[in-house]
Amino acid sequence: MTQAKRRSTAGARGDQPDGVLQYQQRVSAEKRSTILEVAIEMFLENGYESSRMDAIGDRAGVSYATLYKHFPSKDLLFIEAVDHLILQLFSRWKEHPAPSDVEAGLYAIGRALYELVSDARLVATMRMVVAQVRNLPDVGRRFQQAKHLFGDVTDNWISKRVEEGVLSIDNVQLARTEFIGMLSEAFFYPRLTVVDYSISDAQVAEILDSAVATFVARYRQPKSGNR
Prior knowledge:
Layout: H1 3-13, H2 18-50, H3 53-60, H4 64-70, H5 74-90, H6 92-95, H7 102-117, H8 120-132, H9 137-163, H10 172-187, H11 189-193, H12 201-219
């Protein structure tokens, strides 16, 4: 087949050169990301009910056709926007590995949790999720899935300490839940209902020290000389 005939056949099939296709895919992905970032801003500014699709499209600088091509409804855009933000926030855990020392590692995990739940975007998003979860149950499920980013990283850290013989834990996921639960009681849950909730650096340190000491007292593997 001649080159000219191959081009003619490709055109008849609607095929495009790889470079053009990759460019179109990149532009589409960039527009989708821009829409999600703008949607997050507007949902946080105005709440779910008061945010309008046309206003989101206008601020994102995309046509309504493009907006609805990516997100056919406001419900879907909200779910995807929440997912996008939560994944961004929880993925930070992978960027800051905790040290292998048990006390220092647990303290680092707890400190990272405190910084995460202190993010005003997370708190505002969680309030919206709670308000909309009855009508949009998928948004709640997606949030739980995103939390696994933190859970997987922390479980892996705990499992390594078990393999090293430093910790004695049969159920790693349960142990992690216990540790995070102790911290969340003071670090996170009050933020959902108390608008101006805050705790001092001294209180944060005291809570972390207590949670780490409690976890270590229960799960540290006794040294052979202390058996």
